[in-house]
Structures are given as C-alpha cells and as structure tokens.
C-alpha cells in the first residue's frame, strides 16, 4: 500500500522533473496496464518518445484525464483511443504519433505539433477550450481578457485545420476553418460594419463551408417575396393576382401559388413575362432579382469549394 501511494505521489508531483527519470516510457506503460485511471498526471516536458499507451484487447482506451503534458515529447507515440480529456497538450510534440480515435475534448491544444500524426476519428470539441473561456469572459464584461483567448483559439483552430488538410481529413478541416473565422469575428469591435458583414457571411454560407445555408436562405427569400407579392398584387394578362377577400379560399390559394411561381422566376432572373409586377411589387421584384443573382453565384462558389477538396 505504501509503495502504491509513493508511486501515485511520483506521478502527481508537479515539482519533480520527470525528464531525470530513467525509463519513463516503461514506467508509464506499466502504470497504464494496471487498469487504474491516471488523472492529473504531471508530465510536463517528459520524454515519452514512442510510448505505447494502447489498451490492447480492451473495449476502451486508457484514461489519462487532466494530465499536464506541456512541451512533452510524444513523437511516434501510440495513443490509439487514449482518453486525454481535460489535459494540457500545449506545445507538446506529437509528430508521427498515432492519435486514431483519441479523445481530445477540453484539451489545451495551443501550439501542439502534429506533423505526420494520424488524426482519423479523433474526438474533438465543437468549440475549443480557449473559445469557450473567451465567450465566458466576454459575457462577464471582460473584453480584454476575452480577446486574448479568442486570439489563442484562432491560432489553435488554424493549426489544427492545416494539419487536418495535410492528413486529407477535409471535412473536419472545414469545421475548424469555420470556427477559426467565427473567433476572428469575435475579435472585431462589437458594433462595427466589419463584424456585421462577417456575421452575415456566416449566416448565409458558413464562411463557404455550409452550402445548405445558401439553399435555405434562397427558399426562405422566395417564400417571403411570394407572400409579399400576394399581399401587394401582381398582374397576369391585365388581371390582378393577389389577396382578395371577396374571392373564395381556393381562388386565393391559386393566386398565392402563382405569386410563388413569379417569385421563383424573379429570383432566378428567368423573366418569362407571363406575370408582371406593378406598383409596390416593382421595387420588391428588383430587389429579389438582385439578391437572387448574387445568391446563385455564391452557391456555385461554395459548392465548388466543397466538392473540389
């Protein structure tokens, strides 16, 4: 019992320089194979080149929560399915390491080196630690401290995106590019034209990563303009199409469908001419045609970007 307590103290003591320990890799592997969780292990700057922390034959990987791996050398390490939640991997060297299926949620990944690392099916946070902290500080009214975290988050997202692109994992790289642009927006003055424009680009296209947003916006605008045409009225063959309380429900419904058809034709700038706007419908049609031509061009750009990765 005393030996076990002494061993535990060794791993949890942040004052000990683990680099001076003889065969740290073998000791850590032996500790992992004991099956006991390894929370809070202090491995700052540890030399763990080629360490094997794979739980062979187990249904789950070993648990290494809240570990301090700041500047640790983990080159060529075998970390398949390792649960590293809450750990600090800040500036850790994970070049050519196997991180397949590893859990990196709540980890500090600022400055981590991942050249040649295997990153398939890694479990990432939707929002990295720095972004969450920055948002919390911004909500508490501390923009200066929040700005620092947002800058760190942008740097981390960019670093991860680049490594994922090199590894051919473009879907995940696209998600990190989106988060990178979001935290860049959060660094802009709160009530500025730049921030508003950036938000609109995110809303309409997810910074080029969400073609579905463009489609949904298009359908929404077509539906809204069709309803407005129905309220203000358009003309077909000299007859008015639009809301008429003197008509029955079926007649109004048919006019509404005609107005939606006119909205589609206007949005796509086809302009068949069978239905024409008049009065207030004219500026509305001009606005819809302008936005429609821009939106279709945007969709082509976003779609091509996604398909050519």
TrEMBL record:
Spans traversing the lipid bilayer: 212-232, 253-272, 284-304
Pfam families hit by this protein: Ion_trans_2, Pentapeptide
Keyword annotations: Membrane, Transmembrane, Transmembrane helix
Record organism: Pseudomonas benzenivorans
PANTHER family from the UniProt entry: BTB_POZ DOMAIN-CONTAINING PROTEIN KCTD9
Database matches in InterPro entries: 5peptide_repeat, K_chnl_dom, Pentapeptide-BTB/POZ_domain
Alphabetized SUPFAM superfamilies for the sequence: Pentapeptide repeat-like, Voltage-gated potassium channels
Domain called Potassium channel: residue spans: 253-308
UniProt name for this protein: Ion channel
């Amino acid at each position: 019992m005393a030996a076990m307590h002494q061993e535990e103290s060794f791993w949890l003591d942040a004052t000990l320089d683990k680099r001076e320990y003889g065969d740290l890799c073998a000791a850590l592997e032996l500790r992992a194979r004991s099956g006991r969780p390894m929370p809070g292990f202090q491995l700052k700057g540890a030399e763990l080149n080629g360490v094997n922390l794979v739980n062979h034959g187990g249904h789950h990987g070993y648990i290494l929560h809240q570990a301090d791996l700041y500047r640790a050398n983990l080159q060529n390490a075998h970390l398949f399915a390792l649960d590293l939640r809450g750990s600090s991997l800040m500036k850790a060297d994970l070049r050519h390491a196997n991180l397949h299926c590893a859990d990196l949620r709540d980890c500090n990944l600022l400055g981590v080196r991942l050249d040649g690392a295997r990153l398939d099916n890694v479990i990432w946070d939707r929002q990295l630690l720095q972004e969450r902290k920055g948002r919390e500080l911004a909500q508490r009214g501390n923009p200066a401290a929040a700005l620092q975290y947002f800058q760190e988050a942008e740097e981390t997202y960019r670093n991860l995106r680049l490594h994922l692109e090199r590894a051919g994992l473009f879907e995940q790289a696209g998600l990190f590019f989106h988060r990178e642009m979001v935290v860049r927006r959060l660094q802009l003055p709160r009530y500025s034209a730049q921030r508003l424009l950036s938000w609109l680009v995110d809303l309409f296209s997810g910074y080029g990563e969400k073609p579905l947003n463009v489609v949904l916006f298009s359908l929404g605008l077509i539906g809204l303009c069709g309803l407005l045409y129905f309220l203000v009225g358009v003309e077909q063959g000299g007859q008015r199409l639009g809301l008429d309380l003197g008509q029955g429900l079926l007649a109004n419904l048919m006019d509404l469908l005609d107005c939606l058809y006119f909205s589609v034709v206007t949005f796509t700038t086809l302009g068949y001419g069978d239905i024409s706007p008049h009065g207030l419908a004219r500026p509305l049609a001009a606005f819809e045609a302008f936005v429609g031509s821009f939106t279709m061009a945007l969709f082509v750009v976003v779609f091509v970007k996604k398909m050519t990765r």
